[in-house]
Design brief:
Blueprint: H1 15-25, E1 34-36, H2 38-44, E2 47-51, H3 62-70, H4 75-80, E3 82-85, H5 89-101, E4 105-109, H6 115-123, E5 127-130, H7 135-149, E6 152-153, H8 160-176, E7 182-186, H9 191-201, E8 208-214, H10 219-225, H11 247-256, E9 259-263, H12 265-279, H13 289-296, H14 298-301, E10 305-309, H15 317-330, E11 334-342, H16 347-357, E12 361-368, E13 378-386, H17 390-402, E14 406-409
Parallel strand pairs: 2-10, 3-4, 3-6, 4-5, 7-8, 7-10, 8-9
Antiparallel strand pairs: 1-2, 11-13, 11-14, 12-13
Length: 413
């Protein structure tokens, strides 16, 4: 995909900019570890190293670019304050470091932003203004306030200072694991991958750079490949659900990035669940996109030494619970079975005896007599149950059918 024709000096961010950014910010951010995952390596066929950026204080790499930008403001700009439009990790990273440095920060968020994100951002010392029903409306209002009040606008991705700060992630990864030959990096607006690709180009050995987008939001893929796939839908990876990538970042991605792959919602869910189960770490959907690419496209990365950034860990706890339960259901450890019974004494008891004989735990029972297409003397019972694995569940279903019960599974989407 990439033309790789431009010299680094022709681009708005150089390796020297990123090295300077690292010198500037490293004492005020967490030096997150880059660790091998032996289990994920065995699963994917690649040697997988994970960079745990979800361990930053605000649980995301966005602090890097925000701090690098703040530290380059003039005294006058610091006194006037900064402003951003964001409902996510950029807002918290900017708010936290601005407060730490004594710089007033204003964050404009859409009115439908979850209360927890508003309170978290306010907790980092920022003034939050709710404006508009969409990000675009919040962004437009932030630019108006910038002009009216003399604020400095800090863009979430399309700024050389932001890109240089994000690129420090790759500096640390290669310091820890010099043998990495492939970066697999989530793409939203493109700030992180632009910085990481700049570092990759300056390395002493060839490093392939592969971007990852959700199938529902292939905005950079469209921009680079000239396609026109829709960008819409409820993706688990809302942190990279960007409809329009940056102008600066698009130029850098076109010249420095080797490939962009798309991942499904199911792969994203699986990646979030595996990271919690295997690595015991909480990662949001966007942060799990790199692993999702390895899971969905294993042949693409087989045999490579891959560096994956777990770029954020800010996921709603209820959403995380749903993801984990759905994963258990897909693996056969949780199931809902729909069983047709005759409406007579002992019917449910006799079914429960089969569950007991197969040592499958019943979690909940839904008995349906009225809202069914069965005859009046028939009924449907949905039973949620817990098995050891798919084979155990299959043995239960076979035993129920052998007992004369019409049994089907209620499948997930």
């Amino acid at each position: 995909m990439a033309t790789r024709t431009a010299e680094p000096s022709a681009l708005p961010v150089s390796i020297d900019d990123i090295r300077a950014a690292h010198d500037r910010i490293r004492d005020a951010i967490v030096r997150t570890p880059t660790l091998i995952s032996r289990t994920l390596s065995e699963m994917t066929g690649a040697t997988v190293y994970l960079k745990f950026e979800n361990l930053q204080f605000t649980a995301a790499y966005k602090e890097r670019g925000a701090l690098n930008t703040l530290l380059q403001l003039s005294p006058e700009a610091c006194a006037a304050g900064v402003i951003a439009a964001s409902a996510g990790n950029h807002a918290q990273g900017l708010a936290y470091h601005a407060h730490r440095l004594g710089i007033p920060a204003t964050i404009v968020m859409p009115r439908n932003t979850p209360t927890v994100k508003v309170t978290q951002t306010e907790g980092h010392g920022a003034t939050v203004i709710l404006e508009g029903d969409t990000f675009d409306a919040a962004y437009a209002h932030a630019r108006v306030l910038e002009a009216e009040r003399g604020f400095t606008f800090v863009h979430p991705f399309d700024d050389p200072r932001i890109i240089a700060g994000q690129g420090t992630t790759a500096i640390e990864m290669l310091q820890d694991v010099p043998t990495i030959d492939t970066f697999v990096t989530p793409i939203g607006g493109g700030g992180l991958i632009s910085g990481m690709a700049t570092v990759a180009r300056a390395a002493d050995h060839a490093i392939e750079v592969v971007g990852v987008e959700a199938e529902l939001f292939p905005s950079m893929y469209n921009r680079i490949n000239g396609t026109d796939m829709p960008c819409a839908g409820d993706t688990l990876a809302e942190g990279i659900a960007v409809k329009e990538p940056g102008a600066i970042t698009s130029t850098m991605v076109a010249q420095l990035v080797d490939d962009i792959v798309l991942v499904s919602e199911r792969s994203l869910e699986m990646a979030v669940s595996l990271l919690l189960q295997i690595e015991k770490t909480v990662v949001e959907g966007a942060g799990a996109a790199g692993l999702a690419a390895l899971l969905q496209h294993p042949q693409r990365f087989a045999g490579k030494t891959v560096g994956v950034v777990l770029c954020g860990g800010n996921i709603d706890t209820r959403l995380l619970a749903n993801v984990l339960l759905r994963d258990l259901a897909r693996s056969g450890r949780l199931a809902r079975l729909r069983i047709r019974l005759q409406d007579q004494p002992g019917a449910l008891f006799n079914v429960a005896r089969i569950f007991d004989a197969q040592r499958v735990n019943i979690i909940e029972v839904y008995h349906q007599r009225v809202f069914t297409t069965l005859p009046a003397k028939g009924l449907i019972t949905d039973i949620e149950c817990e098995a050891r694995d798919r084979a155990h569940l299959d043995r239960l279903i076979a035993a129920l059918r052998d007992g004369g019960y019409e049994t089907t599974t209620v499948e997930l989407a």
